[in-house]
């Protein structure tokens, strides 16, 4: 698995897409830093970009990478290796290459601007950590969808729909639910609903650390009231770990039953 | 060495393999798996390699069932039908990857020289032509000295010189006692190299035997015409001891070859 991961990583790191992804974050972060001049504000600005863009790019990369390497995967499947080693290896290679583009794209401008001398290093680390976790979760989900659906158009469409659902539609449905049942106590429902969306979880994890309640929204406020920042952070972190693990297990389940 | 019993595979409503029984044990022989498009050749090969999971039936390798096993594949060299590799890796790296998966003892240098791949070793695989990719594919397939070689359309995209090299290579491997299984649409290659033919049609084995036997049964001097004869006048699937197919309506089958005993 490690070897396959290593080669998938090198293959992806040399692709134009990885350079573009790195380039975007590098330019965007540099522009924000030098225009605003306040590291704390830039961390919050970047939060929303990371919450939307990391899952989207990971989704697109995941589907594209699986379909592009389909024939090569067949060659690997004919080798004396376990099936799951191939797919987990490719998935991890994908996750790490996305993470490296993100870390370098955002990290270099921050370091150049003087992050180490500022008080924001913890918040900055939390932000990057969330970007990495979201990349892995959505790369896993899209890899799973591509593995499940041979038809590329259907696979691509469904993967984008999953991203759209979690990034945009989920909050809308959630608001409708809250409005419709506003007569009832909804705290626990809201809490459960938050745990079911990795993007919301990430947002809350960062905001709990940043302690900017104005940006937290309804679910974040509920979470903080229920658990306080410490326990809330542990709960969200655990949920994110579960979200990262689930696609891996599902990839295993599908891969072991699939015909290639 | 390889025993296939009552193999069934369907993809949705499409029944691709319908009860294949086949035993392959001849060392130093080339068996050509022939049949029209969609007859189940690739599916059969992929079942052997564990890439396609059969609905019914069993495949045994050296007496042991292969279901959910992977170690046995170290005994098989495989050339897939389509040569597509990670675009940004170099030829040298893909060879090294295979070596890291299967072990360092390979004869890659000999094959690189044979197919003239030296100038391409440091080029990204995405920049290679179809024929050159097929040469890389062949190098990867023959790199290990496994006792069984399975080739799915090995001639695709090869130039005449590379094709001659491939034929020589196959003849050498055969002489070294390997069991070679090949699917192809190039009948001249089959006529030149194959010791035995397995003809698949609609998921059944319709013929198994030598080229001479096929010509004799079809009453044709020309091999290609004999093959066309099976296609245009479908025969009853053969009923050799290890191969039992369904029994179609004899009235609709004017051509019924005699059972063979291979």
What does this structure look like?
The complex is a heterodimer of chains A (260) and B (262). Chain A is 85% helix and 0% strand. Chain A has one domain. Chain A has 260 residues and is mainly α. The two termini of chain A are 19 Å apart. Chain B has one domain: Rossmann fold. In chain B, strand 4 and strand 5 form a beta hairpin. The C terminus of chain B is likely disordered. Chain B is globular, with a radius of gyration of 19 Å. Chain B has a 6-stranded mixed beta sheet with strand order 6-7-8-3-9-10, sandwiched between helices.
Short summary of the structure?
Chain A has 260 residues and is an all-alpha fold. Chain A has ten helices and no strands.
Q: Based on CA inertia axes, which overall geometry of chain A fits?
A: globular
What pattern of helices and strands is seen along the backbone of chain A? HHHHHHHHHH
Roughly how much helix do the residues of chain A carry, as a percent range?
A: over 70%
Largest sheet of chain B: 6 strands, mixed
The residue-averaged pLDDT of chain A reads 86
Q: How many helical elements of chain A?
A: 10
Largest sheet of chain A: none
């Amino acid at each position: 698995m490690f070897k396959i991961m290593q080669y998938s990583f090198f293959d992806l790191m040399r692709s134009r897409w990885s350079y573009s992804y790195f380039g975007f974050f590098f330019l965007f972060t540099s522009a924000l830093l030098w225009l605003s001049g306040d590291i704390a504000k830039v961390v919050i600005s970047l939060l929303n970009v990371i919450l939307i863009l990391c899952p989207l790019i990971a989704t697109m990369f995941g589907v594209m990478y699986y379909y592009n390497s389909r024939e090569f995967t067949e060659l690997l499947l004919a080798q004396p290796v376990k099936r799951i080693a191939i797919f987990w290896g490719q998935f991890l290679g994908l996750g790490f290459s996305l993470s490296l583009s993100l870390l370098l794209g955002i990290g270099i401008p921050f370091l150049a601007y003087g992050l180490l001398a500022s008080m924001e290093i913890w918040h900055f680390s939390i932000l990057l950590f969330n970007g990495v976790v979201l990349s892995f979760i959505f790369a896993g989900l899209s890899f799973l969808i591509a593995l499940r659906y041979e038809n590329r158009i259907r696979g691509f469409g469904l993967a984008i729909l999953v991203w759209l659902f979690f990034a945009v539609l989920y909050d809308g449905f959630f608001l409708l639910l809250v409005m419709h049942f506003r007569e009832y106590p909804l705290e626990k429902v809201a809490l459960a609903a938050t745990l079911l969306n990795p993007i919301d979880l990430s947002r809350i994890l960062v905001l709990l650390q940043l302690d900017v309640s104005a940006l937290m929204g309804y679910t974040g406020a509920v979470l903080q009231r229920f658990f306080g920042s410490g326990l809330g952070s542990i709960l969200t972190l655990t949920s994110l770990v579960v979200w990262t693990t689930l696609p891996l297990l599902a990839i295993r389940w599908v891969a072991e039953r699939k015909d290639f | 060495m390889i025993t296939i019993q009552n193999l069934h595979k369907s993809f949705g409503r499409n029944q691709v393999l319908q009860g294949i029984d086949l035993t392959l044990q001849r060392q130093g022989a080339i068996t050509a798996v022939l049949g029209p498009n969609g007859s189940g050749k690739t599916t059969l090969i992929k079942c052997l390699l564990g890439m396609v999971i059969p609905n019914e039936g069993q495949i045994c390798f050296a007496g042991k069932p292969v279901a959910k096993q992977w170690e046995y594949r170290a005994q098989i060299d495989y050339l897939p039908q389509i040569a597509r590799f990670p675009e940004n890796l170099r030829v040298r790296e893909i060879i090294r990857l295979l070596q890291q998966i299967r072990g360092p003892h390979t004869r890659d240098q000999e094959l690189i020289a044979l197919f003239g791949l030296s100038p391409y070793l440091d080029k990204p695989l995405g920049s290679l032509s179809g024929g050159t990719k097929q040469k890389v594919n062949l190098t990867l397939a023959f790199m290990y000295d496994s006792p069984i070689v399975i080739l799915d359309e090995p001639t695709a995209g090869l130039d005449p010189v590379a094709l001659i090299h491939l034929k020589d290579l196959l003849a050498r491997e055969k002489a070294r006692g390997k069991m070679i299984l090949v699917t192809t649409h190039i009948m001249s290659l089959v006529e030149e190299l194959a010791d035995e033919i397995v003809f698949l049609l609609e998921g059944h084995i319709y013929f198994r035997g030598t080229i001479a036997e096929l010509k004799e049964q079809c009453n044709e001097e020309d091999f290609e015409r004999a093959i066309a004869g099976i296609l245009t006048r479908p025969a009853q699937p053969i009923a050799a001891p290890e191969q039992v197919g369904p029994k179609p309506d004899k009235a609709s089958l004017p051509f019924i070859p005699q059972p063979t005993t291979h």
